[in-house]
Structure formats: C-alpha cells, structure tokens
Amino acid sequence: MNFLRTLIIALGLAVTAGGEPDQVRPNIIWLMAEDMGRDLECYGMPGVQTPNLNRMAKEGALFTNAYCSNPICSPNRSAMMVGVDQTVINAHHHRSNRDLPLVAPYKPITSYLRDAGYTCLLGHDLVMGKGTKTDCNFKHTATGAYDGVKNFGLFDKRADFTAADQPFFSQIQLQVTHRGDWWNQVRKDAKDPVSLDEIKLPPFFADTPEIRYDWAAYLDTVEYMDDEVGQLMDDLKSKGLEKNTVVIFIADNGRCNLRGKGYLHDSGIHIPMIVWAPGLVKAGTVVEELVCTTDISATVLKLAGSEIPDYMSSKPIIGVEKPEYRRFVRSARDIWDEIDECSRSVSTKKFKYIKNYMPEVPWATNQAYLEINRPALWVMRRLNEEGKLSDAEMTFFQERKPEEELYDLEKDPDELNNLAKDPEYAEVLKEMRSHEAEWLSNNKDLGLDDLGRRRPEIGLSAEVARDAVRKEQPELWDRLVSGELLETHAWMNKYGSRKMREK
C-alpha cells in the first residue's frame, strides 16, 4: 500500500474502487469555555485538576501560543464567526451593531458550512445553560436561514449532536467559567474543592484570603467545565461518532480577573487551545507556533471541504500538509460597556507590543461590571490606599497607561517590566512597530477610524445595579467592598430591568 493510500485511510477517507479518494467529511465540534486563561493542568496551572482536557491533549494537539483577536467575548466571537478581525467588520465595540447586517462580502462561516451540506448545531443539554450563547456584534439570530438581507440565522437548530445530523458542525459554549452566581455553589458542591494552599497567584495580585478564595472558586469552575468536556466526549463515543469527529477546544478570551478579560496582556488574550482529531492529529503533539482564534474559522471550513473566501486572511492549521503559522498575532481592545478605550497589540513568541491610543484611561477604571465582579479590585484598592501594595501589585493601579508597552515574554511572562523606553530594546521596539504597520497596510481598522467620535453606552444593567445596591443596601455593599464573592448577577436582573422600565 503506497503512502498516499495509507494517509487517506488514516484520515478517515473512503477509497473508491478506482483508487480515487472519496472524502468522508468529518463532523466538527467547537467547544468554547468562557473567560478562561490557560489555567488547565495540562498547561501547568497549580492547584487545578483537568483530567479530561489532559486526555484530549495527550490524544491530540496542545497549542501553546494561541491568541485571540480581542480580549472581550462579543468582539472576539464576532471575529471567529466570520473568520476576520473584528476591527475589519465593524464588530469591535462590545455588544454593538446588533441591528446592522454584515456588509458584503462578509458572511458567517456557518453560511458556508450549510452551503457545503453541513448541519449546524448550537448547544448541548449536558452543559450548564445548554451552551447556546452566540453574542456576535452584527445582526443575527441564533437559528434560522441566512442570506444577510432578510434572514440572519447562524445555526440550523439548537440541539445535541446526533448521527442523523452528519456531517455536522456543533458549537457548544461552556458557560460555567464565566463570572456568575453559581461560583460559590459550584465550590460548595465540589467533591474535592481546589485547595487554597495549593494555588499560585500571579505576582500582580495581593495574596490575601479573599483573593485566594476567589481564585480557588474560579479554578473550581474550571474543574466543573472539564467534567462537562468529559461528558461530551462520552456522549460522542456512545453515539459511535468519535472516529470521524474533530473536537476543537478553546477559551473565548482570557480569565475574568485583573489584567485578564478586557486587557491586551497575556492573561487577557493568550488562551488554551486543544485539537482532538484521531488519525488527523498525531497524539501528544505540542504546537509552539503562533495561531489566532480566527485561524480556527479557516480550519473549520478547510476540514469541511468548504470554500475559504478570499477576504479571509486567516489560514487553516489542521488538515493541511504544511500549516502557514503566523509571525505575529495582532489584537485590539475598544469600547467595553461604559468605558471608551483604544489599544492595539502585537504578540510574537518572544515579545509583546502594546500601543495605547488613550493612555489617559487607566487600567483600573470605575467600570461597573468590574466593580461588582472582581473581589480582588476592592481588596487591592484598600491595600493601595494603605500603601501596602508591592511594585508588581501596583501595576494595575497606575494613574495612566504608558503610550507604548514592550515586554520580553520569555524573561517576563507576567509583563511587569515595560521595555519600551529601554535603549537596549530599541531595535525590538522598531520591529514590533513594523509588524503593526504591516497589519494596518493590509487591513482596515475601523476602531482607529472612529477614535474620538465614539459614544459608549451609559446606564447598562451593571451600572444601575451597582448604584442601586450602594444606595439601597449598604450592608450588602459593604460585603462587596470587603472582597466577598457575591451573587451579583441577581443584582443586575433585579435593578438592571429598572432602566428598561424607565425608558
């Protein structure tokens, strides 16, 4: 048997009597954990146990340098759904443009998949909340037909994957790692909760009981999510679908804590990525090359045998003989709720460059969503007022951001030593600026075009809830300010609706 025929069989392809391959297209499952960094056991995170994702990595490929194009859920999800950076398709501001269709020629990747004969499924009953979040910053509905004019459905149906739907593309959101009122209960119900003594906090966090508890509770949700992944893989195998299914696991952006979600440092954009594809990916593969989450979009289309549109600059990284990995990944941050912000970053395997177009906006703003969902923020504010923060812990609380940041990720993975003004790194800074200039020469950045003319939305549910609890429930507010992890989404449900009634 020649090499090509062996490869064809290994990839799960049928061979016709005439010897020509007739491809059996794989099912594709895309799992998205919400708001989670590379905080898995297989990435070396202390204190957490993730046996199911460990197994996926052992049987598949673990990517060590996967980055997202935005550190906030909806802009990055928009980019992944289209396969194009959010700043190009006018989806760069969080929860924006929900009434504006994508402009031609851009289309959701699910439109191409359906044209290629795939059934596009959303969610699964085995995961918290059914896993049906879409959250894209262009006109869309979760299900239904799509033509971009009168019909804007992304998926065929909300349903578990089944053999009858083959070939299928199933996107499943893993909600539990997102900040939510379930965190305390998840920890309470855990058979083996994460030990406060076994975790390791980043050096830019103060080490206090409140912050340790919050970090451990977060890792408890990671373990809960890992169990969901195990259940999904068991379901796949029980239905006899495991031999012709590719499973891609990522987080939609970095962890939901200080310098994480919403920020262009590695804890906000450097994410986990595991691809499980028996016969297509060699077991135990570790990929250290740079990839962006939009490359997954191109990969999905390639695996499906679908058209990859010319406007998609991302490249497939699985299912091709020689993947075209990136020399750098460009990411962007723009409006998040009531906070106007504009920053751009370039990540290579060794260095990170950040250009802050609004340095007068500090990292530690008074953003309502952070104030009611980041216990560490209140604890460290108090310690800062008392003069008890170390230099590393003070990083997040500077009065303004530098105009430029440059970090050596090998020597300084926590990005604490800004080298932008260090003469020894002048050539590196020049090279990183040139990467940004190269990206801009090939792409339009609508977030730079609208700079100075933006109108962040004021009076969102987090703002209304924060202000109401502070005024009407002072004892509850004092508990929040003390650093206690509280069920604050219930506040938004209770008080946030008040704004809608007043409209």
Structure description:
The longest helix is centred in the middle third of the chain and has 30 residues, at 209-238. The protein is globular. The strands form 4 sheets. The protein has an 8-stranded mixed β-sheet, sandwiched between helices. The chain has a 4-stranded antiparallel β-sheet with strand order 13-14-15-16, with helices on one face. A two-stranded antiparallel sheet has the order 1-2. The protein is built from 15 helices and 16 strands. Helix 3 runs parallel beside helix 8 (293-303), helix 13 packs across helix 14 and helix 13 packs across helix 15 (489-502). By secondary structure, it is α/β, with parallel strands linked by helices. The chain starts with a helix and ends with a helix. Mean pLDDT is 94; it is low at 1-22 and 498-503. The chain has 2 domains: 3-326, Alkaline Phosphatase, subunit A (3-Layer(aba) Sandwich), CATH 3.40.720; 343-502, no CATH class. It has helices at 3-10, 51-59, 73-82, 109-115, 183-189, 209-238, 266-269, 293-303, 368-373, 375-385, 426-442, 446-449, 461-472, 474-481, 489-502, and strands spanning 14-15, 21-22, 27-33, 61-67, 119-122, 141-143, 153-155, 157-158, 168-174, 245-251, 270-276, 285-292, 329-333, 343-347, 351-356, 404-408. Residues 26-305 form the Sulfatase N-terminal domain.
